[in-house]
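Inputs:
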Amino acid sequence: MQWFRELTGVKAVLQRCKEFPMTTKKISPARTIAQVLLGLSITLSSTAQTSPPAPAPAKPANDRDKDNKATLRAFAAIHPIDVHVHVFKTDPAFQKLLERLHVKLLNILVMDDTLSYRKQLQPQIDDAQALARSSRGHIALCTTFDPYKFESASFTTDAIQQIDRDFARGAVAVKIWKNIGMEIKNSSGQYIMADDPKFDPIYKDIASHGKTLMTHQAEPDVAWGPPDPSDPSWSYYQENPQWYVANQPGFPSKQKILEARDHVLAGNPELRMVGVHLGSMERDLDNIASHLDKYPNLAIDTAARMEYLMLMPPEKVRTFLIKYQDRVLYGTDLDLPPDAKFPDALKDWQSTYARDWKFLATAETLTVEGKQVHGLNLPQPVLHKIFRSNAIRWIPGM
Ligand SMILES: [Zn+2]
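Outputs:
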């Protein structure tokens, strides 16, 4: 995102964000900064608009703070659930924020062999369980298994044994990540796919425990396409070129990876699946809709893809969210890595929650990537489902 680099006065923010490696490859430092700036640069118009309003002059900082405080109070009043975060540490200020916002988090584990603190599974599980216990009911755990052990003879039984242990200790869901489909290869050199028979007993086990599978399969379209600085994910691939696969001959197509995910849905009708990041169909609401129609065991989360919704025609997004109001879960992909600095890190959280609430719940006008975006002003019952009750229904134990 070139635009923010051109702004002056953000050096300190840039510096802070560059100090920590991101916990998830989904949020680059650039993206996090963009979120901060979006949060700071949101401009408001107080009444519902029938036509695009003239750009309002930026409000003084203390007015914006007041606006954000009021917005966060409305957000908190719904007792929101954020089903997609990556939290590696806590702090009294963070705990206080969760309590003030009445927010509950689903903390998602991922095995990532490129990040020291995500390489080992058991330490992550132990830490995440301790974090959940200390959170006074504000953090639940989505565990995972180690897909890098795919070729081990006991892979499937080991994975089942471990997730069953995690369920017994309170885990409410299991995550599979994009390294399945895009990174890990089998002994014959093929990328392993989500519908590999070795995974099937694991899916059956999750379903038999009444738990939920969270799937991050593939990546945004732009990872397979030409460079596109206007795409909200583009800056991520500049920071994480290993996931930009457009120039890699023989790399699996996005369609192939998502078809494997769809085979899991079709083959496991008893398994509830949340396709995170808008089910990786971020540019195409019609495609999401046809998947939701076809697979009653599928829901989606909004994590790290809210900007795609913000940049689509608002009437289309509003109609979609009302029609599929039982199938969309609010998630952010916010993170708190081991070296996050408090209280600065909490500003990202608050500005993201304020921005998302304004977009979905109000008729205010936001400025997103230089564009005027109209809030969708969704009906209260729909907001209650997206921000709370869908999470409880799709991920029992939340
Ligand atoms: Zn994530």
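Remarks. The first helix runs from residue 2 to 5. The chain has 17 helices and eleven strands.
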